[in-house]
Automatic annotation (TrEMBL):
Highest taxon of source: Eukaryota
GO MF assignments: ATP binding; metal ion binding; pyruvate carboxylase activity
Protein name per Swiss-Prot or TrEMBL: Uncharacterized protein
Gene3D superfamilies: ATP-grasp fold, B domain
PANTHER family: PYRUVATE CARBOXYLASE (PTHR43778), PYRUVATE CARBOXYLASE, MITOCHONDRIAL (PTHR43778:SF2)
PROSITE patterns: ATP_GRASP, BC
Any GO BP: gluconeogenesis
Native organism: Schistosoma mattheei
GO CC aspect terms: cytoplasm
Length: 225
């Protein structure tokens, strides 16, 4: 959090004692950093409800894009290409099996309502579906309080490329180009390289355009005023 009183202090906020902290300090704005609170729509909403500037996207955008099923549908609505995936969360290995029979292997199971590499399993054999679904679902339940899964076709040796976005309250959205986050361990990024090396110019142009269009369609705003 940021206040004039603690300008030269380490800015730390405990979500558990959020209201208590607001009462103790003259809080004007909160920057949640990255990961953890920055990805929790409840925290963004709590800031808004308290009249505090949350330096990040609105709670409704955090919630929608943090839900893999909703984010996928938002991409489809914005005419952004997606790989074959389940139209909604799945709650049984039988549903996962049906998907595999229809679309083929390999597939990847992901926590429908979480991220950060937790609750993820790649499956390459039908006989491994049940065990991997149960393991991934249990991990998702422990980490996010919801064991629902999302399944999609797995792309072998993909590149993980992200586009940085800024949007204002007037509806303007711009990109700050891309970064390559393909060097990972356990689905966690280790190195980020910008710009992405050896990226075809045509693909880069399409990627940046898609990112801006998607951000505009979900009314992405980066609050910082």
């Amino acid at each position: 959090m940021f206040t004039n009183r603690i300008r030269h202090s380490i800015h730390v906020c405990s979500f558990v004692h959020f209201n208590e902290s607001l009462q103790r300090h003259d809080v004007e704005a909160i920057h949640p950093g990255y990961g953890f609170l920055s990805e929790r729509s409840e925290f963004a909403q709590a800031c808004t409800d308290a009249g505090i500037i949350f330096i990040g996207p609105p709670a409704k955008v955090v919630k929608r894009m943090g839900d893999k099923v909703e984010a996928r549908q938002a991409a489809i609505n914005a005419n952004v290409s997606v790989v074959p995936g389940s139209p909604g969360p799945i709650t049984s290995s039988e549903e996962a099996m049906e998907f595999c029979k229809r679309y083929g292997l390999p597939v990847i199971l992901k926590a429908a309502y979480g991220g950060g590499g937790r609750g993820m399993r790649v499956v390459r054999r039908l006989e491994d579906i049940k065990q991997n679904f149960e393991l991934a679902s249990s991990e998702a339940l422990a980490a996010f309080g919801n064991g629902a899964m999302f399944i999609e076709k797995f792309i072998e040796r993909p590149r993980h490329i992200e586009v940085q976005i800024l949007g204002d309250k007037y509806g303007n959205v711009v990109h700050l180009y891309e970064r390559d986050c393909s060097v990972q361990r356990r689905h966690q990024k280790l190195v980020e390289i910008a710009p992405a090396p050896s990226l075809d110019p045509t693909i880069r142009k399409s990627l940046l355009s898609d990112a801006v269009r998607l951000a505009s369609s979900v009314e992405y705003v980066q609050n910082c005023n």
